[in-house]
Amino acid sequence: MILTLASLLLAVAFFLPLWAVYLQAPQYPEGLGMLIRVNDITGMKPNDLENINNLNHYIGMKRIVPSSIPELRLMPFVVAGLMVLGLAAAAAGRHWMARAWVVVFAVVAVVGLADFYKWEYDYGHDLDMENAIIKIPGMNYQPPLIGTRQLLNFKATSIPAAGGYALIASLGLGILAVIIDWRRPQAARVAAPRRARAAVVL
Q1: Residue 137 burial (CB < 10 Å; 0-12/13-18/19+)?
Q2: Domain extents for the chain?
Q3: Per DSSP, what are the bridge partners of residue 42?
Q4: pTM value?
Q5: Mean pLDDT per 10-residue section of the chain, whose length is 202 residues
């Protein structure tokens, strides 16, 4: 039951954004923001992404073009694959499959965060200084992976969005299912029918 719920929670990623980046500055009192989805990047408001790209041009940053980011084409398949594997592990009722799913999920999460950090680093450091209107030697414009950072007169905040919290909850439930099963007495685990184990824990 728990592992099934954990797997189904992944579906939220296809409907709600995974990550949010906010920009606040005196000249933009209403703020700017972009939402990173499983297969796209959009502005929080209709013109936000275009405004962010225009601001990036002044400091020599590359434009954010969702169609040019390969991870956005790959992520839907990764999330769907995790859903299928999790549901298969829950249906089979095999303890090793549940543990393997949690390990694979955790590895994917770490790799995903590392790749996101690399993406932010590239955008914040690989600047076209020849054509930049604002040039500050030694300055980089990498937003934080998680948290807030001051970038000139902009305060940049990067945090998980609703879909990201759903993924965190999914992994947490998977870990909980494995812990509950692990804490059960060995004799009970051996004696319990496979279907009963799947219904109670997985």
Answers
A1: exposed
A2: 2-200
A3: 35
A4: 0.83
A5: 91 96 87 94 92 85 88 95 93 88 95 93 82 76 90 89 96 91 61 46 54
